[in-house]
Amino acid sequence: KTRTCSFGPSCRFDHPTWVPAGGIPDWKEVSVNAPNSDFLPIRPGESDCSFYMKTGVCKFGAKCKFNHPKDR
Fold first, then answer.
1. Over the stretch 27-58, which tens digit does the pLDDT of each residue have?
2. CA-CA distance, 23 to 46, in Å (whole number)?
3. From CA 42, how far away is CA 10, in angstroms rounded?
4. Cβ-proximal residues to 24 (8 Å cutoff; 6+ apart), any chain
5. What pLDDT shows up at residue 44?
6. What pTM was estimated for this model as a whole?
7. Closest CA relative to residue 33, chosen from 61, 7, 57
8. Is 2:29 a contact under the CB 8 Å cutoff?
9. Of the candidates 1, 46, 26, the residue with the CA atom closest to the CA atom of residue 58
């Protein structure tokens, strides 16, 4: 949660150089379990996102190709 990596240069993930040493003060991570229905695309004519319809959450967010009806 501090935006630092104990693996250093050997880490297999990308760590942008703009992140200062020690992380970003007061950085808030968004929980994947947080309701995200306000940011999901409404795509009339597309199939409904089945995971969103079951859980109210979509891990693809705004990039999801399926419909996310407000009245699920």
1. 655 554 445 566 899 999 999 999 999 988 89
2. 40
3. 41
4. 3
5. 92
6. 0.49
7. 57
8. no
9. 46
